[in-house]
């Protein structure tokens, strides 16, 4: 009898030891960074194990599988994104996933984006339905629910890095991004806008044009100053139309079906659109893109000068002018330079194609 009891005790101890080994065995390999694992909706336990193995997050699939079967946690896989730290035990891994203790993903919305690009970013980094994002950005009811309209909504999706959850849907993601707009407009910034005689939305609209124009960050305040001079009539020339090429590009892409930006032709400047600032007075109906913080601040703190014109200088920057005659001379030189570049390219292509 004593022998039987001893055997049972030993078996119990062995079983407890095996259970402890399964549960508390460090099973996530050493690494410099946590392992990132995404678990789509409807993933089975075997599918989870496949995902963990594919990113190298487990040493022993067998021990993890055994613990899942013993505890019943193999039936409790939760959708989400998880970071698994090196050295985690089987217990810690499965406990985190069965409880759905997700880790956020860092999403960066770049400045100078169109709605389609924002939708792609959310799809690629968050898995959000890009069609749903694009649809919401053009939904008047959705825009109204956030205190704005469709013309201004995307421009208020200010460029920034956000922490979001992989299971966030399109509406949740967009509301999270838009929350920052009101926070951005501090009392100091609102006071600067008021001093210019502009509303925050008007500042963002002007900044969206500067965003497309300024390839060099150090030029943003000067370019903003040119447009403020034209818009508010700060020079002896008085008020002028903005005549901003980016607004023509926007109209051609948004309303004219152009797939991408291209060199503008003379006829393009007559394109009939409320966004074409060669045809309308003042600002367009809304932003043409989402500007960076620094670009909005460049408008609020625009450079005081008497420039009214600028033209590309071939280096990514611009050459500024005060008078039409000065500007036209520089524009002709720029056009001649572009034509020469095209001529040289065609000549090189012809030479390369020759037998």
UniProtKB/TrEMBL annotation:
Keyword Cell cycle recorded: no
Top EC class, one word: lyase
Domain of life according to the entry: Bacteria
Enzyme Commission number(s) of this protein: 4.2.2.29
Keywords on record: Cell membrane, Cell wall biogenesis/degradation, Lyase, Membrane, Transmembrane, Transmembrane helix
Positions of the record's site feature: Important for catalytic activity: 213
Pfam family membership, one: YceG
Reaction(s) catalysed by this chain's protein: a peptidoglycan chain = a peptidoglycan chain with N-acetyl-1,6-anhydromuramyl-[peptide] at the reducing end + a peptidoglycan chain with N-acetylglucosamine at the non-reducing end
Membership in a protein family: Belongs to the transglycosylase MltG family.
Record PANTHER family: ENDOLYTIC MUREIN TRANSGLYCOSYLASE
Function: Functions as a peptidoglycan terminase that cleaves nascent peptidoglycan strands endolytically to terminate their elongation.
Name of this protein: Endolytic murein transglycosylase
Source organism of this protein record: Rubrivirga litoralis
């Amino acid at each position: 009898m004593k022998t039987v009891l001893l055997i049972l005790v030993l078996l119990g101890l062995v079983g407890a030891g095996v259970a402890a080994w399964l549960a508390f065995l460090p099973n996530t390999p050493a690494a410099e960074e946590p392992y990132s694992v995404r678990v789509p909706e409807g993933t089975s336990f075997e599918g989870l194990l496949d995902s963990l193995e594919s990113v190298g997050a487990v040493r022993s699939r067998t021990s993890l599988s055994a613990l899942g079967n013993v505890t019943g946690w193999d039936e409790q896989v939760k959708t989400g994104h998880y970071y698994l730290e090196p050295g985690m035990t089987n217990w810690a891994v499965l406990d985190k996933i069965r409880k759905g203790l997700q880790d956020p993903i860092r999403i960066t919305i770049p400045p100078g984006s169109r709605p389609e690009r924002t939708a792609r970013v959310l799809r690629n980094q968050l898995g959000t339905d890009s069609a749903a994002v694009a649809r919401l950005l053009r939904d008047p009811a959705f825009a109204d629910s956030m205190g704005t309209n469709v013309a201004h909504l995307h421009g208020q999706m200010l460029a920034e890095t956000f922490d979001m959850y992989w299971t966030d849907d399109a509406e949740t993601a967009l509301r999270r991004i838009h929350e920052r707009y009101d926070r951005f407009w501090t009392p100091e910034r609102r006071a600067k806008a008021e001093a210019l005689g502009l509303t925050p939305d008007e500042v963002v609209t002007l900044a969206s044009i500067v965003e497309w124009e300024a390839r060099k960050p150090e030029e943003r305040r000067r370019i903003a100053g040119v447009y403020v001079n034209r818009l508010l009539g700060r020079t002896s020339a008085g008020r002028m139309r903005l005549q901003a090429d980016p607004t023509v590009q926007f109209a051609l892409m948004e309303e004219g079906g152009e797939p991408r930006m291209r060199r503008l032709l003379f006829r393009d400047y007559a394109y009939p659109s409320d966004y074409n600032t060669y045809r309308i007075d003042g600002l367009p109906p809304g932003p043409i893109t989402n500007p960076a913080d620094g670009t909005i601040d460049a408008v609020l703190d625009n450079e005081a000068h008497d420039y009214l014109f600028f033209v590309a200088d071939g280096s990514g920057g611009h050459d500024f002018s005060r008078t039409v005659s000065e500007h036209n001379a520089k524009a002709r030189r720029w056009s001649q330079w572009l034509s020469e570049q095209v001529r040289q390219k065609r000549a090189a292509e012809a030479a390369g194609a020759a037998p």
